[in-house]
Amino acid sequence: MPPDCTSAFYEENAETYANRARSLPKQRLDAFLAGLAPGAAILELGCGGGQDSAYMLSQGFDVMPTDGSAKLARQAEVLIGRPVRVMLFQELDADSAFDGVWAQASLLHVPRRELPDVFARIRRALRTGGIIHATFKAGDAEGHDSFGRYYNYPSAEWLSELLTNGGWGNIAISESDGGGYDGKPTRWLTVSAER
Hints:
Layout: H1 4-12, H2 14-18, H3 26-34, E1 41-45, H4 51-58, E2 62-67, H5 70-80, E3 85-86, E4 98-103, H6 115-125, E5 126-137, E6 143-144, E7 150-151, H7 156-165, E8 169-178, E9 186-194
Parallel strand pairs: 1-2, 1-4, 2-3, 4-5
Antiparallel strand pairs: 5-9, 6-7, 8-9
């Protein structure tokens, strides 16, 4: 299945997906925000229903929410009360514009061969000392879930090597068990790194 099946899923299920019962990853959000100055500029990649952006805004941060799905972006705008930029990760072309990038369960849809370029774009978008938070579903090979969504399913070692080769510093990758939209047990990788 081509990755555009992933886009089709989010377009066709935007309202259901945006309004699903979802626990805010508050512990991760607070840890990420603690590494930033008050009011810092944050780029959210793949904001989904907008809950994480809404939380970061409520904490006084300057957030630019983005999503690749126009319909999901509209759903997020209703919650956030501000525009959400419709943008694919591969279209990011900012230069030293953000202090932090929040990519919770979004970069996991980028084809493996495109990840080095996407991480390079994110690194360029960050100011020196800027940080990224990203989560991935762990695995050994690319694949699709029961909804037809594409996942890159990296290992911690694979991701660590990719980030090291990309010039990132202070790379930290932790693993934890959790779930996903498909209701299946999931091994998650949580990544943080610094430009």
